[in-house]
């Protein structure tokens, strides 16, 4: 397990924090390998990223649980699973299409792929996590995620995440996540790692390690 930075204060975000969190997520996303696949045009990427994460942060504040570093340098959006209600899922799909415009088909495709690989077991899903580029490497991400783990571990609640870069994957490994079969986005897209974290004494479901047809 990774050590937790004692210099990072974590709190639950409120709607008043939305502007700062949108900026953290959007600016971090610009450097993610998936961004190259989703929005190859660099002139469009920042504009679309801010529109997309405006929707994502609003949706997370309404339907999920959003944690943030108190200094505004990091954010994590969690959702309790199983499946969201059809109304919540439909609201999300509409918001994604409106935010991403001509890039919507790829955004819809990746979300469909991720959902098709989602474990059916009850868990907390880390949908998005980001640390501002200028604050990375300081233990901020570790502190942010460990705060949530400390809340769900006593409940025997597992956690699940998709790692979209080797840097993120390595962080999750240090935090006790185990890798399952990965998937590769089509048309030369990057690899995405499925990762599951089970509290001590909780059995990891065998279905998590079963490859899907799109796994490589």
Protein model, in words:
- By secondary structure, the protein is α+β, with helices and mostly antiparallel strands.
- It has a single domain (11-209), classed as Aminopeptidase.
- 42% of the residues lie in helices and 20% in strands.
- It has seven helices and seven strands, in the order βαααββααβαβαββ.
- The chain has helices at 18-29, 33-38, 42-63, 86-100, 104-116, 140-152, 166-174, and strands at residues 10-12, 65-69, 74-81, 123-131, 159-163, 178-184, 191-197.
- The chain has a seven-stranded mixed β-sheet with strand order 1-2-3-4-5-7-6, sandwiched between helices.
- The longest helix is centred in the N-terminal third of the chain and has 22 residues, at 42-63.
- The chain is globular, with a radius of gyration of 16 Å.
- Keywords: Transferase.
- GO terms for molecular function: acyltransferase activity, transferring groups other than amino-acyl groups.
- Residues 8-205 form the N-acetyltransferase domain.
Main attributes of the structure:
216 residues; alpha+beta; Aminopeptidase; seven-stranded mixed sheet; 7 helices; 7 strands; GNAT_dom; acyltransferase activity, transferring groups other than amino-acyl groups; GCN5-related N-acetyltransferase
Query: Stretches where pLDDT falls below 50 for ≥5 residues?
Result: 1-5
Structural category is alpha+beta
CATH architecture: 3-Layer(aba) Sandwich
Element order, helices and strands?
EHHHEEHHEHEHEE
Number of helices: 7
| Biggest β-sheet strands, sense, barrel | 7 strands, mixed
The radius of gyration is: 16 Å
What CATH calls the topology is Aminopeptidase
Name the CATH class.
Alpha Beta
Cα shape: globular
In spatial order, strands of the major sheet run 1-2-3-4-5-7-6
CATH homologous superfamily heading: Gcn5-related N-acetyltransferase (GNAT)
What percent of residues adopt helix (DSSP H or I)? Answer: 40-55%
How many structural domains?
1
Q: In whole angstroms, how far apart are the ends?
A: 28 Å
State which percent range the strand residues make up. 15-25%
Pfam families: Acetyltransf_1
InterPro entries: Acyl_CoA_acyltransferase, GNAT_dom, Trichothecene_AcTrans
GO molecular function: acyltransferase activity, transferring groups other than amino-acyl groups
Keywords: Transferase
